[in-house]
């Protein structure tokens, strides 16, 4: 079995006590790395100021070498905050209006990818398989190829891929697409994303769908497919069951006694539809006054990318909106929205999912959305809750037992909340079983195996046809 090299912007480092970092993706990739032996390389999250970063810092844990690099202040500003988070992130989430183009940032993005390639290349052996993750590192394969590497290189995009009309508004769309063609396998979350990718090649006349998942463009033949990411379903279900005994979870349960709880969990990000969701909850309460004082909505929203102006603005808006609704509708003994603007412990999170009658997951656009899957896995099989899910989350393609909503339709989401709260136990069980069965048979280990199998076994093609 070939060695595996995983590259991602940030690396989930194992905890000080040696236990693996939490989160399904980290667990699955760590397991794959452990089995094959390998390296996980990425940015340390630290800045080297204005000095060239020193050598990679390396940490060995079992079969895995974690290799981290610092970046300069300029790199962080241009590559990470600038191009990745203020161009690629909004564009891939269909937010043309929020993209901030700057030549400096674009150049910085390509420069840091070249830097990553130069740091990584000396560690790579000819048989290694390389798996690159997410939008920060699209040009990495092209840089490695430029240095003469012939290894199998795969890429997985965790976020959506937009339709051609949106992508072409980005001044460097051609370079980005050319970057993707240097991989042997490009994985997307859903078949919609894959279709958008194929549609761009067709529309711009720069490539062909050769059938069977093969494409040619920019003089190269490569594979692309949909690989919907999963969670550690069985493990998370057990975890949530035992989390019911957690002190904080029990305290929360007592504090909502006699009321239903609705839960929302999202990084503070404009793609998650938090503002529209708070509006929908308000509309639900004003349209169904009998539910006032009978429902508590808990919104857990860890801060994210606070140094990017759009996120700073969002943070203010969400806090104001929650405060306004609480002031207008709350009573002396009932706060309709409990808003927690920081990260909470994973055990408590699992226990809270299980307490909630409704999981409210309404992103305006999301590659997959793991919260939706975690909410389902955490439910008590005897009295499961209801998932209210945006049709614009990748997860909606799989979770057919959810109440699907259009998050832009505030009234429609409010109605779905009412329907979820009134749903019979029989219907809840039926919908939940359907989703749980799917999640058990499509977990994150399978996702990882499928991607690596296709990357390794993709037929040896005459990869360059120019
Ligand atoms: C990207 C794509 C795709 C959240 N708050 C807390 C906390 N979380 C955990 C959740 C979940 C994860 O963070 C969030 O994952 P999502 O999938 O919902 O969203 P993104 O962060 O945007 O992830 C997304 C994903 O990549 C994987 O491919 O699904 O579409 O955007 O696991 O549980 N965890 C803890 N405390 C919190 O307060 N411990």
Structural class: alpha/beta
Care to count the β-strands?
16
Main sheet: strand order: 3-4-2-1-5-6-7-10-9-8
Number of helical segments? Answer: 16
Please report the distance between the alpha carbons of the first and last residues.
31 Å
Low-confidence sequence ranges: none
The ligands found in this model are:
GDP-alpha-D-glucose
The radius of gyration over CA amounts to 23 Å
Give the strand content.
15-25%
Question: Overall 3D geometry?
Answer: globular
| Overall helicity | 40-55%
- Major beta sheet, specifics? 10 strands, mixed
Arithmetic mean of pLDDT: 94
Describe, in plain words, how this protein is organized in 3D.
This protein is of the alpha/beta class and 466 residues long. It is built from 16 helices and 16 strands. The strands form 2 sheets. The protein has a 10-stranded mixed beta sheet with strand order 3-4-2-1-5-6-7-10-9-8, sandwiched between helices. It has a 6-stranded parallel beta sheet with strand order 13-12-11-14-15-16, sandwiched between helices. Strand 14 (358-361), helix 13 (370-377) and strand 15 form a beta-alpha-beta unit. Helix 3 crosses helix 4 (140-146), helix 9 runs parallel beside helix 12 and helix 10 (274-287) runs parallel beside helix 11 (309-329). The mean pLDDT is 94. Bound molecules: GDP-alpha-D-glucose. The site of GDP-alpha-D-glucose has 20 residues, from helix 12 and helix 13.
